[in-house]
Amino acid sequence: MTTVAAYAAPAAKAPLERTTIERREVREHDVLIDIKFAGICHSDIHQAREGWGEAIFPMVPGHEIAGIVSEVGPGVTRFKVGDRVGVGCMVDSCRECENCKAGREQYCTSGNTGTYNAVGRDGEVTYGGYSEKVVVDENFVLGIPEGIALDEAAPLLCAGITTYSPLKRWNAGPGKKVAVVGLGGLGHMAVKLAHALGAEVTVLSQSLRKKDDGLKLGADHYYATSDPATFEELSGTFDLIVSTVSAPLDLGAYLGLLKTEGTLANVGAPEEPVSLNLFALLGGGKSLSGSMIGGIAETQEMLDFCAEHGIGAEIELIAASEINEAYERVLSSDVRYRFVIDTATI
Fold first, then answer.
1. Same domain for 55 and 176?
2. Alpha-carbon Rg for the chain in angstroms
């Protein structure tokens, strides 16, 4: 075991504090990563505050990890010391079910092993990226291409793949009209990716406060959802709507913005249930769907796509001592557009 410094939530809703954790020794197929940067995802806050249900404490959040390989196990074939790598939202799965074999490890039928707030198949609790080092099986490590700065790459391991996957699944591209609901950590990546894929992109945000940013990121249009006229003007417009917000929406109103047989894909995860009059789906043969991160192969595809198109996250680099302040700012939508921890400050 190796002792490393980390920031952990000692209990639900408690401020995160500096501590130490134990990392396992490198096994046959393990990669030891010196973490350089770790993104702060809204889901870190949900879990640290038990917004999604009972959690495991102490908790070291962080599933947007970018770093450098410092050691590999004797059986490792995919990585070598010095490689630039990333780790996303999961660090293991059963690898035997239909979904795992199809490259959809995120939907492992026996449950994937989360990068933190989970119990691994070895019975040990997992701890995330707000730490100096992490040990991960090579099959759940991603290569970060040279074309992306490590700090801007970290958020791609969650925010990037979470938005890339539904855009690819529903064929966002030339000739398609795509709307992105919310311009935050997820939303700003959805805009960049949809634009790079060739779609006509519209941002739907509560206000026009971030309009200039949205247009610079690649949006063609920007509307305020607080204005009822928006829903009248855009009725029947979109092939695909990707909702990135973690607050309940009036789903019927947004379904009304879809073309016939259009899809509303949810990647945000509100803590509260939402309701829906099913006639909003029946009229027009529309689909309401969900999407959760992506498989390992698709995540690597996303990273390669981002490198090819010069895409990284828009970040605000912070010291570890600023994590608790950053959490409050995320909840206040006061970040442009992803906090990333410089782990050298832990």
1. no
2. 20
